[in-house]
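Form 7-S
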Amino acid sequence: MTRIAVVEGDGIGREVVPVAAEALRALRPDWEQVPVELGLERWRRTGTAIDDADLATLSSCDAVLFGAVSSAPHGEYPSVVLRLRRELGLYANIRPVRGSACDLVVVRENSEGLYAGRERIEADRACTERVITRAGTERIARVACRIAAGRRKLTIGHKANVLAADRFFLGIARGVASSEGVPTDDAFIDALCLDVLRRPERYDVILVENMFGDILSDVAAFHVGGLGLLPSANLGDGHALFEPVHGSAPDIAGQGIANPVAALRCAAMLLDHLGDTPNAARLEGAIGRVVARGFVTPDLGGTVSTLELGSAVVAEL
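Output:
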């Protein structure tokens, strides 16, 4: 039996993930859903945010449907996300951005750069180490090339004009693309963010390192209505985790107004990843029809609640 780990996490993750899980249950009642509690609220209650048993459960499942985890304002709370990426080998973050004016995919390296957790705070300074490796760049470039092979082209975003690590990243990525026969161009990341806003139709698949990918995909969300609509996949060689781009959004948590579309689209990506492309398309179609009727949450100008939108999508299915 196919087993899906369902992790609500913190903040609005506890509101949007149940909506996505219900849609998944409507389409695949034969799949087992395995609840796993992780995150800041569990840490505050028990002193543990994630343990080895949780990782064993996640590893035993065929995929993970993930909400969000909050950060703590001090250094005692371990990063759940970094541990998940490290322990499950989730090195590729795939962020599709699709709307009427935009159809691109940001391929973000997920394990290196400034987000890798290699940092320290001293008496008079704080240091965060940014490391880009050949092996890490080659494997994410191969993922980007596989995606670009079925589309038009691959753009490499970087800051090679001022950062030696980016010159290293750019050279390796170009070499992988050349060996795979994938045409490429490249752009400085600051200019690229502006151009994606101005002329999104020029871009198809964009390969970037960790932090640049996080920023660029958030910028591109402008074209589809905001972060509440963007899903993502975190992929490794043996595991897959699907999460909304928006994070835990503590400022609106508990109000029932969070947009569940990103989480629903994560469920669609999960279905597609596990080979159920017809049901993935059914779910995307149902989301599109409900939103097109103006049945939307306040972030898109509507008055619909999280649960009401989710119920409408399930009814559409």
